Amino acid sequence: MLLVGAAGCSSEQAAPGTTASSTGSSSSRPSGADGKVALVRTGADVSSPTDLVAAPGGKVVLVAERAGRVTALTVDGDRLTDPVQVLDLTERVGNSDGERGLLGIAVAPDGRHLYASYTRAADGASVVDEYRLGGSPARPTAAPSSRRELMVVEQPYANHNGGDIAFGPDEFLYVALGDGGAAKDPDGRAQDLFEPLGKVLRIDPARAVPEDNPFIGRDDADARIWLRGVRNPWRISFDPANGDLWLGDVGENRLEEVDVLRAADGGGRGANLGWDLREGNTDFDEPDPAPGDPGPLTEPVYVYPHGNGACSVTGGVVYRGSEVPSLVGQYLFADFCGDGVQALDAAAPDGARPVPGTGLTSIVSFGTGPTGEVYVLSLEEGISKLVAG
């Protein structure tokens, strides 16, 4: 099956959806008091966007394009205009077919460095690099000569690369990696503490490994591991209100899951999300875990089955903006093969609801702009912004 994007869903399966509404301006929109929501096209001149983050300065976003480019766009109301190339990694990325490509970007909390997560042209290995950010707030640049390689993880197969990266409230960099690919985690990597695959890693770009990582100092574990037991974590994010870590994990063939690791409970420190002992909230029928004690397993907060156009979860963000009051405190996510945005109450996620007015297909990522407003990224339909309807 031809896979499209790291979400891992066939383009033939993508359900036809309602096109996002035409571009509008925030000054002419309703206040959102009635709870209605819409998507407006931003007009962003980008190709196959995979990630979006706010840039230093408060008026620009950075967008990762699957082929390997990072583009800066100016926020102008609901529009994203004036594209400027920040960094070109197309030669390093090379093959962006299937689940490969430039998969994630992050900006350091102090705004001085850009981090890029991609699959390497030569062999498909997962790489995380650091680049110095320069230029002006309106036109940031990242010098290729400043490249510093932070991490290389060999990939035994071409799929399940994961690849999202994000800074936590602790100002450390979190790196989400899939289980290495193929199917059914044949080598038990997700449960193997020697293996970085099937994990979320936590690193300090300045000093490599934070001293309070859960497995540091153990001879039987990779010290970078923050949590284990994920299959293909496609999008992680931190709730800016409380630091909770949210994660969408793509299932094998039956169930998709959303997980939350509460900051008040340690933020997932040393947690085991269960793969491949479990798929979603049920026992996996063909487990092949590494030997050893898995410890207690953390249950997902939401699970949904394949079918009715669903095939591959796209994790999202908790909305903490101001333009759409009805979405405040909602965790927004999607399914790559589905149509539109889903919402979970971040405080009490007891079931998801579709967000009317957000029909969009091939949703591959969510991003947050400088003022906390949320953008929805589609491989096929570009970048749209969530607004009051």
Descriptive account of the structure:
The chain has one helix spanning 90-93; strands spanning 3-4, 9-10, 37-41, 49-54, 60-65, 69-76, 79-88, 102-107, 113-119, 126-135, 140-142, 148-153, 165-167, 173-177, 199-203, 225-228, 233-238, 245-249, 255-261, 278-279, 282-283, 302-305, 313-318, 330-335, 341-345, 353-354, 363-368, 374-378, 382-388. The relative contact order is 0.17. Residues 1-27 have low confidence and may be disordered. Strands 8, 9, 10, 11 and 12 form a 5-stranded antiparallel sheet that branches. Strands 3-29-28-27 form a 4-stranded antiparallel sheet, with no helix packed on it. Strands 4-5-6-7 form a 4-stranded antiparallel sheet, with no helix packed on it. The chain has a single domain (3-46, 155-388), classed as TolB, C-terminal domain (Neuraminidase), CATH 2.120.10. It is an all-beta fold and 389 residues long.
- By DSSP (H or I, 4+ residues per run), the number of helices equals 1
Indicate the low-confidence ranges by residue numbers.
1-27
Alpha-carbon Rg, integer: 19 Å
The sequence of SSEs as H and E is: EEEEEEEHEEEEEEEEEEEEEEEEEEEEEE
The major beta sheet can be summarized as:
5 strands, antiparallel
Strand content: 35-45%
Distance between the termini: 38 Å
Coarse shape: globular
Number of domains: 1
What is the name of the CATH topology? Neuraminidase
CATH homologous superfamily - what is it? TolB, C-terminal domain
The CATH architecture classification is 6 Propeller
Q: State the helicity in percent bands.
A: under 10%
The count of DSSP E runs of length 2 or more, i.e. the number of strands, is 29
Q: Write down the CATH class.
A: Mainly Beta
Average pLDDT over all residues: 91
The assigned structural class equals mainly beta
